[in-house]
Amino acid sequence: MSGRPLLQLYTTFAEFEVLHERYDRTRSTSKTVTVDRQALIHILMDHARMLDALRKAGRVDVAEPH
What's the first-to-final CA gap in the chain, in angstroms? Predict the structure, then answer.
């Protein structure tokens, strides 16, 4: 791949893997999952950047709250 990346992520691969491992260890009946605060912040910042990039490209349809 050449050129500038479309999106710079805050979440590291290590944080991503730990979040997935934590989710996998959680019971299906649980309503909450305890995760590292910084990893959650990074995921939220990545999501916001992704939405911004998709909006600028005219390629997003965000679901309305139920």
Answer: 39
